[in-house]
Amino acid sequence: MKTPTDIHDLFEKYLLGTISKEEYDLMLHHFSLDSNRKNLHELILKSMKNEANSGDDEELGRILRMTDKHIYGITRTPKTKIFTFRKFMPYVSVAILLIVGIFSYLYLIRPIDSTDIKTKKTVYDIMPGSNKAMLRLSNGEVYQLTNVATGISTGTEGIRYTQGEKIVIPNENETVSVSTPRGGQYRIVLADGTKVILNAESSIVYPSLFRGSQREVHIEGEAYLEVAHDAKKPFIVMSKGQKITVLGTRFNLYSFAGEPVTTTLLSGKVEISMRTGNSQPIKLTPGQQSIFSGSDIAVREVEASDYIGWTKDVFIFNDTKLTNILRQISRWYDVDVIFPTDFKDESFYAEIPRNRKLSEVLGSLQHSSNFRFEIQGRRIIVKQ
């Protein structure tokens, strides 16, 4: 059994790059034990203090706690990664960043045991959402869109699956509505070439062909848009209480009932205005997010790519409250969430693939916090 002094020596050799494979395996085994977790944190903090050109103990402690939450909130797949550590530590040397190598083994490669998540009244785990949606025309016709296809396109030849199979040829002035249920997502290409991805429990209403001086759509829920450029026809998105005007751009819209409306811009420019009142429009530039609370619009700088992780089948939680996380999970897995009466919210830092079973996603969250989760039928019971 290695003594603390031996482990300190191995850790120093690791940072210097002189550790042997046998010594490296011994060190990993030592830190893989929960009882030695605190020891690893102390060594990391000591190394940070030695290498930092600026900063104090309080700041380093804050970063370490953030890193701890982040590490324990992630799991073993290659798609899962730490994404805030370097941003908050610009003064840490490459040697310190090599510590991530230990984390990669202990917390990414070593699988999290989802058997800790209790399931009752069911003999199966809850699977993630899939491609499914409903297509409605203004003449009353309804079409259940197949989950074999990933999306549809609308144009002069009618509405077709992206693979080419025809669905329907609507009238010239027909209004089209595509909606996804809880546990569904779908892709739509509009007549002008604009690409839309609908998240779960969301909808878009648009004309079969854009005529007139502008292109207008209505969106509820969450959607990612890549708007085709047309300087003569601005693209208008109407959502809950707000209006977005664009020419050609990429952005994410989050507009659910009972929650603030957020618009996150990845490229181009958009103009946000309230649909009622005489307030001045607000222009966003890439990396900015507007937050409409019903009475005013605030703007902040964000990591815009975090807000479209869902389009790549990844949950990205960057200082995200558990209540918000479970709202996203409930829509994607079509489940309800029950919180305890004395619930106290907590923030998480993690990336978790959306193609996992529910118990595995909850296992990742449970491993990084004091919360416990129990699956009862299609309900998540939160315990604290």
Can you characterise this structure?
The strands form 3 sheets. This protein has a 19-stranded mixed sheet that branches. Strands 1-24-25-22 form a 4-stranded mixed sheet, covered by helices on one side. About 12% of the residues have low confidence. The chain has 9 helices and 25 strands. The protein is elongated. Helices cover 25% and strands 33% of the residues. It folds into 3 domains: 66 residues, no CATH class; 177 residues, Jelly Rolls (Sandwich), CATH 2.60.120; 71 residues, Phage tail protein beta-alpha-beta fold (3-Layer(bab) Sandwich), CATH 3.55.50. With 384 residues, the chain is an alpha+beta fold. Strand 19 and strand 20 form a beta hairpin.
**Runs with pLDDT <50, length 5+?**
59-98, 104-111
The average pLDDT is 80
The biggest sheet, with number of strands, parallel, antiparallel or mixed sense and barrel status, is: 19 strands, mixed
Number of helices: 9
Oligomer: single chain
Characteristic key phrases:
384 residues; alpha+beta; Jelly Rolls; Phage tail protein beta-alpha-beta fold; 3 domains; 25% helix
Give a summary of the structure in a few sentences.
The chain is of the alpha+beta class. The protein has nine helices and 25 strands.
